[in-house]
From TrEMBL:
Pfam families the UniProt entry points to: Bac_export_3
Identification of the protein by name: Flagellar biosynthetic protein FliQ
Record localization: Cell membrane; Bacterial flagellum basal body
InterPro entries associated with the record: Bac_export_3, FliQ
Domain of life where this protein originates: Bacteria
């Protein structure tokens, strides 16, 4: 196994991690921004007002995107297992 193969696997792992975390992070960001705007307008500075809607929105995002996330991860893992013989042969 040479350094270019290791770098390629690391790059694919980072891209997969970014793709898998994007739905949850974007959902949390959008809901957090909306709640912050509501808190600024109403001048309610309660911590639970921002935490509970974010937790609910992230749970909904996981339910909606969970099947896609699992299939992406299984595909990535199958690709890694398929590459093991070529990595061990050094070609």
């Amino acid at each position: 196994m040479n350094s270019s193969a290791v770098l390629d696997i690391c790059l694919q792992a980072l891209i997969a991690a970014a793709k898998l975390s994007a739905p949850v992070l974007v959902t949390s960001l959008v809901v957090g921004l909306a709640i912050s705007l509501v808190q600024s307008v109403t001048q309610l500075q309660e911590a639970t007002l921002s935490f509970v809607p974010k937790a609910v929105a992230v749970a909904i995002a996981l339910v909606v995107c969970g099947n896609w996330m699992i299939s992406e991860m299984v595909g990535f893992t199958n690709d890694l297992f398929a590459r093991i013989p070529s990595l061990l042969n050094g070609s």
